Amino acid sequence: MSAEEQFKKIISHCKEYGFIFPSSEIYEGLAAVYDYGQNGVELKNNLRQYWWKSMVQMHQNIVGLDSAIFMQPKVWKASGHVDGFSDPMIDNKDSKKRYRADVLLEEHQDKIQDKIDKEIEKAAKRFGDSFDAKLYSDTNPRIMEYYASISLIDNTLKTGLETGNLDLIKALIEQLEIVCPISGTKNWTDVRQFNLMYSTQMTATDGESELYLRPETAQGIFVNFLNVQKSGRMKIPFGIAQTGKAFRNEIVARQFIMRMKEFEQMEMQFFVRPGTEMEWYTYWKDTRLKWHKALGTNTENLKYHDHLKLAHYANAAVDIEYKFPFGFKEVEGIHSRTDFDLGRHQEFSGKKLQYFDPETNQNYVPYVVETSIGLDRLFLLQLCENLVDEVLENGETRTVFKINPVLAPYKVAILPLVKKDGLPEIAEKIYNDLKFDFNCFYEEKDTIGKRYRRQDAIGTPFCVTIDYDSVQDSSVTLRYRDSMEQKRIKIDELHGLISEEVSWKKLLNNL
Ligand code: GAP
């Protein structure tokens, strides 16, 4: 199956099995906005809980926060979002489609990279074992030309964006003869910056004011820094964690839930003594990668991507990328944000945002290391990593979602073999005993084989089947999702066995 087919399959699986639906679908949907269905919401809640437990519950010096989405508009002026949070956009006059100019250029670079890879592959076949790929790409004139073209794009884009000279970017698009994928023409408008923040109106007694929907949850943490520090008597280094919705006017909607207009972030700002930020940056960079691996994600599908171009507030930044079917893409960012945000809020609000350090006897504006992960991207990662088609011994195929059992939407499905002869009564009793501790699924309809397949597709790690022997000896069949192994166990052993397999402790202990 090609990567594109695999991705399409994931999207249709999400709809068929109640994970994700397009928003307002009966009205033809809304681009880049999605709803989480009955299984999606459970998985999303569990992923959020994993993050929260590992960040807040597992660290004495990290506490939580739930700040409002609406904030005083001055917050966004201070943070730099009003003036600088924008994307360079270009329209094709024939197709009337709008594109991100930087993405058009990056896609062009990807095509050049493909050509380089093909050249190297061909040469490797030609030269056999003695082939030195590095030497070849450093000396082959054609490959050198390709690399020069990639760096020209990087440099021009950087200069254009940094100096605000967007004509440079348009000229480069024309020079590279990039065409619109829809119309196939090079009939482009000028490049313009579009701010990504949504605004709305708030009516008060003294009139209307413009408000923004927050584009990141982080600013709610910064403006509450002193409230939390003082009321919680927090000592530096300490962190404040928050999860919640963020909104961005992503004009070019792409790749399902990868780039949405309304999405959820899980962010933690870690406040440190100035001068120690690089130590903490390294600590959080390692810790966050470990966190992803603890979920069972294949190490080869994860990598760091250091930011070469740093945002004006950062002195170091790295992304954790995952190998999605459409290539390695960012799931999480770790940023050393210096004292930029607290410093700006101090300046714009006129209120001191300082910490008195009893160890050094000094007042200072703390430095901040941020970890920021998109919950929706983490959700998509789980699907890409764990949704597999397996060919069984009898030649049939089953689709199984091999999600970590702790995160599965349902932990156990309770399935009476038939709808009569006292079997449903036993099944219901089991359901009523287990439901206090586990999310249980109850189903009587269809053959047992079909019911097992449905549970495999939504990732339920255990199925419990109640049959005629259960009436005699109070035992049931326990079926394991991944191995499909079935074993007979006593009803009163079920709780202990399932608890062990789906315990948060088991997962958090891997950290
Ligand atoms: N406070 C820092 C910040 O917001 P960011 O790199 O812009 O940094 C952090 O966003 C994370 O939020 C990203 O790594 C990504 O997982 C997620 N994210 C950003 N934009 C998104 C979008 N349009 N749709 C889904 N997730 C998004």
Task: Summarize the structure in words.
It is a single chain. α2 crosses α13 (375-386), α5 packs antiparallel against α7 (141-163) and α7 runs antiparallel to α8 (166-175). The protein has three domains: 37-67 and 215-387, Bira Bifunctional Protein, Domain 2 (BirA Bifunctional Protein, domain 2), CATH 3.30.930.10; 94-192, no CATH class; 392-508, Rossmann fold, CATH 3.40.50. It is 40% helix and 25% strand. The longest helix has 27 residues, at 101-127. The chain is built from 18 helices and 23 strands. The strands form seven sheets. A seven-stranded mixed β-sheet has the order 3-9-10-16-13-12-11. A five-stranded mixed β-sheet has the order 20-19-21-22-23, sandwiched between helices. Strands 5-4-6 form a three-stranded antiparallel β-sheet. Glycyl-adenosine-5'-phosphate (GAP) is lined by residues 216, 218, 248, 250, 259-260, 263, 265, 267, 330-333, 370, 372-374, 376-377. Glycyl-adenosine-5'-phosphate is lined by residues 216, 218, 248, 250, 259-260, 263, 265, 267, 330-333, 370, 372-374, 376-377.
Q: Keywords for this structure?
A:
511 residues; BirA Bifunctional Protein, domain 2; Rossmann fold; 3 domains; 23 strands; binds glycyl-adenosine-5'-phosphate
